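Our preliminary data section would be incomplete without showing what the modeling component actually yields. Below, a chain of 403 amino acids is followed by its predicted structure, encoded as tokens that our downstream tools consume directly.
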Amino acid sequence: MSRERTTTTGERIPEIAIAAILSNSASRQRLAGIFDYLGTVHRWNLHVLRDQDEIEAFFANGGATPAVDGVLYSGIYDEATFARLKALQCPVVMMENDAGDQLVPTERWVVMRSDADKIAKAAVNAFAGFGRYRSFAFVESLEPQEWSGRRGAAFRKAVAAAGLGDVATLPSPGTDIHERRRLLAQFLKSLDYPAAILAANDINAMSVIEVAKAVGISVPGKISVLGIDNDPYVCDSVTPAISSVEPDFHWEGRTAAETLDRMLRSRKLAKAARSGPILSGVRRVVLRESTPHLPPAENVVARAKEFVAKHATEGIAPADVAARLGVSRSLLDLRFRETQKTTVGRLITDTKLAEAERMLVQTSHSIGAIHALCGFRSANALKNLFKARHGMSMRAWRARRHG
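Predicted structure:
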């Protein structure tokens, strides 16, 4: 085991494992929330496990290399890994996955989930803004999943509460994707049009759109489709692009870190958490082409933000954003002034600066190299901006963050 680390005052630095599958948009947002919280508290020594193979290998050794004092878990359900996690004598904060009944809060085991009722209400409110529908439907996940069932039940309840009638549901058929597509085609043909469809997540929304196109059902003409999770790599990979409800994964990550910090200090779980899962809300509904009557300002700004988040460090300019969205630069600037009270250029700069701050804390990259990695035209441009924002040099800021 590596030598135990301490602060300059001799206080032991906790060893924390963060299991976050970075190919997953929700996990990346949770990780951002975790680091957001860590910017306000004492230092942890982090072991970031970036994919399921790393996660399973780490906990196959009981998390003992090095021994961990706490775990923040946003990985896939794996029976053997969960058994090892439960055997640990340290606090574990488990963020939503496919474990179902195994996610039961205990003194050392905190469970976090997105609030299915809030997701369902956001979806119903969004559909209400698009017009009147003759039928509503929910498409469950390909394989039976506890989270999918919760989302479907909440949607049925929300539709009924709004006086909109019943919800037709396509249940999980199992693992046969070809049978799934056949059943999905029959299901879509059976609906009264126009129909409003909420899918269990963006992957299932993509299946709805692909099958609808294959059988000649227009989207969003005959069916409007909403996904859940707002994973841009999924939502933008199909035509028409998928409108989606985005749970507040950033809040979930920040709250998970805050909860673990509290448990490390007290070794006790707060009563509110022990009585059931900690629920996160909805951040927003991102509107794309799979739903009709898109509010122009909201749609343009949401798509611009997503493009900037993915490509800011590649040296893009506002004109590149406008070209990607297929709008004029003047319209893009107008929408940002109307809704954000800022500019696209400022958003790009802020995003690049945030990445530079992350690299200073989480990597050993030299200060001279970070400017290029973050898309700044020169090292001096980054250094001057950084000092103007923080009142100190990058070197001094890094030293302070590292204690």
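The radius of gyration is 23 Å. The longest strand covers residues 15-20. Preliminary results of this kind motivate Aim 1 of the renewal.
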